[in-house]
Each structure stands twice: as structure tokens, then as C-alpha cells.
Amino acid sequence: MEPSSSVTMSTPKADLQSIQAILRDRISTHAIPPGTKLNEIPLSEEFGVSRSRIREALANLEQRGLVERIHNQGARVAKLDATDIYNMYDVFELLEGLCVRLAVQRAPKGSWQDLVDLFGADLEEAVKRGDCDRLFEAIMTYRRRTQETAANPTLNTFLESIYDKTLVIIRRTLILPGRAELSFNEHVAIISAMQAGDGEQAEALKRANMRTAREFLERYKDFVL
Length: 225
Description:
The chain is mostly helical. It folds into 2 domains: 16-77, Orthogonal Bundle (Arc Repressor Mutant, subunit A), CATH 1.10.10; 82-224, GntR ligand-binding domain-like (Four Helix Bundle (Hemerythrin (Met), subunit A)), CATH 1.20.120. It has helices at 16-28, 40-47, 51-63, 82-106, 113-118, 121-128, 132-150, 153-174, 179-195, 199-219, 221-224, and strands at 67-70, 74-77. Helix 1 (16-28) crosses helix 3 (51-63), helix 1 packs parallel to helix 8 and helix 9 runs antiparallel to helix 10 (199-219).
């Protein structure tokens, strides 16, 4: 039996953008798991809006690839198989590399000291203790900083769409044997190139980081996916 979104939560009456943001967050974090039916009536009751407003929100999420409509079954959270994920990572590698190169090119000198400090000895010790959540949050901070500084709305749209679908996978990959320490060291090298103002080197290192992430994903796909 497929899961359903019929359990309502206490949420104040919301506008369309807020509804989309809340549902997007629930889907990307798997609070609403892949394959879950998205029933309009309980959602409209939860958010205090009409069913037509819920349909509009779901249609917008469908355009982002987070929701799919099945004939005679309505809307559900989209499922991705291994091939979908691998194809996505091929594009992910290119976009992440482009993002950091643009960020370095457009950043004033001395812009990255906060990331140097973040990926310092304290985080290294936390990673050695197995604190993968702290590393994940540091990587998300790196992500936000580079996207903001790259200042390319089109690039951000594509990246956000991929993050929506891979956020849980990124977190799960970090707990695989040896991945956290490798990812930490990879990001230290990337940020060092950023601080040196070498956008091309930062791009190459970030692309290598994405390739090793994919290799871990392929090796442990039964656990991660």
C-alpha cells in the first residue's frame, strides 16, 4: 500500500509561494517520501486554501520534477531510479564546477576567509569523530556562498532543482565508509584554490569531488538509494 499525505499538520493559512516552499522542503528531506500520494483535500485543509490553489502548487512542483501525475491516480512524489540519479550527477558535476569558477571570478579579494575558517581544525576533528551532520551543514554553507557570489539566477535555478532531488542522497553518502574524511579534504583543497583566486583550479577540484561522490554512490547504491 502506497504512503499518503493524508496526515495533516498545523500550518497557518498560506499563500501559493509558501505552500510550494513547505512542500518542497518536505519532499527534498523525505519528510514526504518518494511515491507518497499527494491528496488535495487534506492539503487544502492543512493550508487553509482551496483545492485549486493546491493543484496549482503541485503543478509548479511537477515542473521542478518533484511531483508526478499518474493517470487516474492523481499526484505523487516523484521516484528516481539509479539511472536517473547517475544522469543527474553527470550534469551536477558540470554545474557545481561552473558555479565555483564564476564565484571566484566575481568575488573581491579576500572573500573566502569564512570558508577557510569553517573548514578548519575544529571541523576536521568533528569529521574524525564521525560528526557527518556538521560536515553536511558546512558543505551546505559552502554551497550557499558560492551560489550567492556566482550571482547567476539561471545557474541557481538548475542547481536548486538538483538539490531538491538529491539532498537526502548527499547526506547519506557522507556516512559511507571513508567518504566524510575524503569530502572534507576535497573541500579544503577547493577552498584553498578559491582563496588563491584560481577559479579554473577550483572548478577542476570541485568536479573531481563530484566524481568521487558519484563513485561512492555507485559502490553503495543499495544502501543510499
